[in-house]
Amino acid sequence: MRWDGQKIGAEAAQALPGLALAGHQRSVRTPEFAGVTFHEVHAKSALNKVPEASAMPFRWTVNPMRGCLHACTYCFARPTHEYLGLGPDEDFQTQIVVKTNVVDVLTAELRRPSWRHEHVALGTNTDPYQRAEGRYALMPGIIGALAHSGTPMSLLTKGTLLRRDIPLLTEAAGEVGVSVAVSLAIGDEALQQAIEPGTPTPRARLGLIRAVREAGLECGVLVAPVMPWLTDSTAHLDGLFRDLAEAGASWVTTIPLHLRGPVRPLMLSWLAEHRPELVRNYRRLYGNGAYVPEEYRRWLSERVRPLRRRYGLHGPSAAPLEGAGSPAGGRAGTSGAGPGAVPSGAGPSGAGLDAGSGARSSGAGSSPSPWRVRPAAVLATPEGALAGALAGAVQPALF
């Protein structure tokens, strides 16, 4: 493509397990992306079928890249890199697989007589508008191929590079159904830079929402993940909902943090470095599981409900119960949390921690979180379509 001078030697290129058998073409490094290696591959298919048993509201996805420069500590897609023999930590954000032929392959697949023009979701595994899209420019072709074939699409992103393609999406919306959503869960820029350092700032994403709405498109917002004791205070959520309403968000849904597989130790490690007083609380809230207990989900719902009314932000038509995040029939963990009055000044050495005490992202004077972490029975949490998409997206079929 445009980085021929940055090509890595054949021996180094073959160091990435599996790619030689999966259409690996070359590996590229460039000073513009320090410390990052792009592994360019020729994919055999572009459309990925979601298993019929999945609770997701769509059956097809397209993911032009694997791995993500956003580097979100909590990213649920990190375990997908293990299928390449790579790690879910540094490898996930520095070893990026790019399907350079994805537009041509997708176009051919959409022309097949067997294609039924079913809804296709973009952004289900890693963000299609991460910074590397600015160099590879795969999304314009993907959007065009879907629209011209009469295939409806939805798109979820944190990337402000989406601005470039707003005219294409507006044009596509005249031919097929187009749904756009932006992920924005952290209103505090200091916290955002610490836990998702490769993402655009909250202000930039609010600007993206405005731009999408000004173009005449609906733009939903996923406030996901809501992180216990970090972003679940009334002060934080109220400020975020106010900003989203001012930006013109069409709908908002909230989903609490879940910690599947290797994401759990990564998140706990981040907490140990940045917020050590919360490590004990997280261990007790999540127990040995990956999901918050139902009691926390319902508590979050009650906290968000008056904010919805205040700012006129309803949920999407297919939204789950507010705060849903556990898989259908799954378990929220072997220990949970129960509601209880926690004094406003509760510190990290107590049984609970006020969501506003000492949390830079919460702000002083915010209403305390009524959470006292204690053992509880294992509770399953109901799942809605949108929460299912996030909770169950780590599957080989979505690559």
Shape: globular
Number of helices: 13
> How do the helices and strands follow one another from N- to C-terminus?
HEEEEEHEHEHHEHEHHEHEHHHEEH
- Rg for CA atoms: 21 Å
* Unreliable spans: 8-15, 17-21, 323-399
Look at the helices and sheets and give the structural class: alpha/beta
Distance from first to last alpha carbon? 23 Å
Question: What amount of the residues lies in strands?
Answer: 5-15%
Tally of DSSP β-strands: 13
Mean pLDDT: 80
Keywords:
399 residues, 13 strands, disordered C terminus
Structural account:
- The protein has 399 residues and is an alpha/beta fold.
- It has 13 helices and 13 strands.
- The chain has helices spanning 10-13, 90-94, 102-110, 133-136, 139-148, 166-173, 189-195, 202-214, 234-247, 263-274, 279-286, 294-311, 385-391, and strands spanning 24-29, 37-41, 48-49, 60-62, 65-66, 95-99, 120-122, 153-157, 178-183, 219-226, 251-256, 337-339, 371-373.
- The strands form three sheets. Strands 3-4-7-8-9-10-11 form a seven-stranded mixed β-sheet.
- The protein is globular.
